[in-house]
């Protein structure tokens, strides 16, 4: 079972970059399945706090990234299957954003500020 | 699909190796590599499927799909170039350039040209290019450590790289799709949502009702169920399930068929599978899209704390901690440094005081740069910096300028304008200062954009349409088309010299000229009064109005709401409203009228007016009264004239008018009020008062000024002084720490000077009790027999005479314990008719009925007393001659019934005199008997005098009078007219107006204008002492060679004072104890 579904609703946090919803300890212990290769959260509680938010709206359980219109609409169809938030309050810290940009990654905030 | 999950890390072979630390890589390498390979084969199929579906779905949109198609075509034909593009895409992994699928060829060409060195035709060059890029990236790597490291690339040889790249890009040529390709694991493309309209080939969206609040649980449960079965041929047609906070009670499932959707949800608690329905295609976007956004909060914004110690306090946002949905605010701290504030009351807001904190708890005080930590709180510049959840704050507090000034407080070292400016500047971008509502703005208003991209632009409002303000500005001398703004983005702009009108706030209605228009705060020179007003820009409007007299009524004529004015013809009225140019008043007939300010004449000296109520007692402003008829409305008097009172009912805003004669005090309990009381009783200070009957009534509670002890409640056992009373409540000031508290009357006992206590509820009830003037009356009224002998004497008789009710007097007299008292007291009640000389006899007579009810002897005694009194001036006669005679008489006539005349019980040798007869009271009178019995009036001084025993007890045991010598040396030895003395249990002040050392009698005039007598019998109780002088006091020498001399005390040295006699420039040393304060006015005022 690879997709990480939060075991309970305690301390749910959503990644500010990809929006995946996990328990805080999951982020800490296993990192973000999508973003951890850029933003190391595994084992870094402060990074988890910085790059995830407890305030999010909407929970989308994406089972098959291929073929899902909902996932495509939410820009999560390139990510791992899992539970994602539709709207995450907050932005990553500026240094993280800068670093992402340096890696050639455009950061799309999921707080609704970049509404098309 | 279990593999497929891991396969989402399509880049893992490269990226994970590239960006992860060594140990990560070594741990992950193997499985990642294997899964990758497997993934690519299966993925290609998926992609093909997707493409078909997508193409079908997007078929209608020509431009988009066309370009996509042509791209696809190109991908196949020019593979190496495309690879290079993919390479670049990898480099700019998240760039929107790549996301825009519909980029045309031309653009592609340009970019390719610009990045020409990346366009390579063979794999080796490609590999080296990537290596360079990676090296470059690693050099730019942020040192934060948050980011995965990648220093492994160098170690890879060309073959490995080639293999990796081949593996990575093998799929692209076939699918030709950049978006669906597994390469863009994070977000390789970012198609705008508006282009993502669902098509008929997309899975359907099913909506299902569920219990409110269970939505997330349902989604999670469905997710667990689906993932568990994934890859096992179940739920293959289910793509996602979701819920939205804004769509409570619903969950949605994206599935190919209804049956699959039902399968997913079936059995999950809280789901009503029977209510499963299809979401129409056109509604799908609305369901998925989230529009509502939490209100954003900016640093500098003013907020208000909702709960806790700082509830209601103004706070300023310092920083926003969005991820945790909390903000850092700064507050004026409410600190209790030393634990002095009581339970339930919070300390007043005050900037942090390091000294106090150090004094109170120095160990927890640490500082770091400009921050100070104390008891876990952080202080910067005196303000408390605190992280608070946004949920606990009221946003958009819209503080007034006053509040901001207070907030700025003393932080700016007195220069509050600087503080305000600083604060206003800080808040300029926030919701203060600017006009926050559109209705404040009018076309023509000059505004400045304070928020958004165009911040700083100045323009003029051209139109206001709802919440959209259109502003035309001339940026760069070019008249631009009007731009639309939200009101909060704008701030009114004023220039010095503008004539403005204040629209809101404290100065509302005022007009004036702008002096200074710095940021949000504008200084206005008022047209009327010339004051400088500081007003927020949003509260101003350019106006040519000049505020009329009405608008400035408060400033011009000093009128205020609830002021008493006289209308034309002298009719009194009270102002109920002040509007521009108009006053609304309530006149004495209860009619509400609107008058021009010039027709309302303000009255002078509001303070001293008083009417009289139904009982003749004075009514003053603030008194609580009740109508004696009609609606029996109750309220407190706002204004009162001789005839009418304007009363504000409690808890109401509507005034009513009442004739004063139709009012009664609402807080007195007894209804039986003496109708002839005319003046308010002063606070009784233990001195007898001459108010005659009913003197206690008229407002002042006899309890006021009494020392009381609490019997019950939290203050049980505490001793304090009664400061005020209202109905059943008594306000008491503690002796111990001057703390005030309120307590029910029934929980108090009055403490008598002799140590007894009397329940306060029984104390001094109007009409039943002796007048409040005497400290002893309570004790007397309660038949406290122990009180009789010495200290009680005065009061007893006083009450007998003065009180409207004889009842207590009778009690005392029939006890037979205090006849002496009556004599003495009545005597030195200087205000009694007897004391006044001529009409003495009648006076005594007049009062006698009151006493008659008492012991049988009284009437006789009284009736005869005038004869005896005649020869003596006023008080001199009082307790002595008259009494003696009086007592004699009853005895002689045999009318002194009861205890009085019971001379046989008197063990004293002087049984032959009338005094002795009175002294029959075994308990108290031994002292009397011991004193030389006066046979004639001439012997008066010796009679009831000083040797009066201090306590009944001592009088039993020691019939011997106290040494007369002490008395001689005492008060009468030094008392000189016009010397001020302090006396009595409350150390009251008085002035000696007359003294007869030979007779051991003196008259004092008290500060309240009344007089009292002091004689030997009362010396021990009153213990009069000269009022000690202070520097520069007028003094009189009371002892020594200069006795009688008056002058000034110019200084003192220890117990030695320097006395400068009147008309003498020299100073003379004089012992301090020889001086008393001299009363030039001889007690009069």
TrEMBL record, chain A:
Gene3D superfamilies: 3.30.40.210
Key word Nucleus present: yes
Spt4/RpoE2 zinc finger domain location: 12-89
A Gene Ontology molecular function term of the record: zinc ion binding
Swiss-Prot/TrEMBL GO biological process terms: regulation of DNA-templated transcription; transcription elongation-coupled chromatin remodeling
Subcellular location: Nucleus
UniProt KW keywords: Elongation factor, Nucleus, Protein biosynthesis, Transcription
Subcellular location, principal: nucleus
Keyword Kinase recorded: no
GO cellular component, one term: DSIF complex
A Pfam family annotated for this UniProt entry: Spt4
Family statement drawn from the similarity comment of this UniProt entry: Belongs to the SPT4 family.
Function in brief: The SPT4-SPT5 complex mediates both activation and inhibition of transcription elongation, and plays a role in pre-mRNA processing. This complex seems to be important for the stability of the RNA polymerase II elongation machinery on the chromatin template but not for the inherent ability of this machinery to translocate down the gene.
Protein name (record): Transcription elongation factor SPT4
Upper lineage: Eukaryota, Fungi, Fungi incertae sedis, Zoopagomycota, Kickxellomycotina
Gene label: SPT4
TrEMBL record, chain B:
Protein name per its UniProtKB record: Transcription elongation factor SPT5
Keyword Nucleus attached: yes
Alphabetized InterPro entries for the sequence: KOW, KOW_Spt5_1, KOW_Spt5_2, KOW_Spt5_3, KOW_Spt5_5, KOWx_Spt5, NGN-domain, NGN_dom_sf
Taxonomic path: Eukaryota, Fungi, Fungi incertae sedis, Zoopagomycota, Kickxellomycotina
Compositionally biased region (Basic residues): 78-90
Keywords carried by this UniProt record: Elongation factor, Nucleus, Protein biosynthesis, Transcription
Subcellular location: Nucleus
Domain (KOW): residue spans on this chain: 296-323, 440-467, 493-520, 618-643, 701-728, 1028-1055
Bias (Gly residues): 688-697
GO BP terms: regulation of DNA-templated transcription elongation; regulation of transcription by RNA polymerase II; transcription elongation by RNA polymerase II
Annotated Acidic residues bias: 43-54
Domain of life: Eukaryota
Biased composition (Low complexity): 790-803
Biased composition (Basic and acidic residues): 55-67, 338-362, 593-611
Entry annotated with the keyword Nucleus: yes
Cellular component terms (Gene Ontology): DSIF complex; ribosome
Sequence similarity: Belongs to the SPT5 family.
Ranges of biased composition (kind: Polar residues): 918-928
Primary role: The SPT4-SPT5 complex mediates both activation and inhibition of transcription elongation, and plays a role in pre-mRNA processing. This complex seems to be important for the stability of the RNA polymerase II elongation machinery on the chromatin template but not for the inherent ability of this machinery to translocate down the gene.
Source organism: Coemansia pectinata
GO molecular function, one term: translation elongation factor activity
Region Disordered, residue ranges: 1-92, 338-364, 593-615, 679-700, 748-963
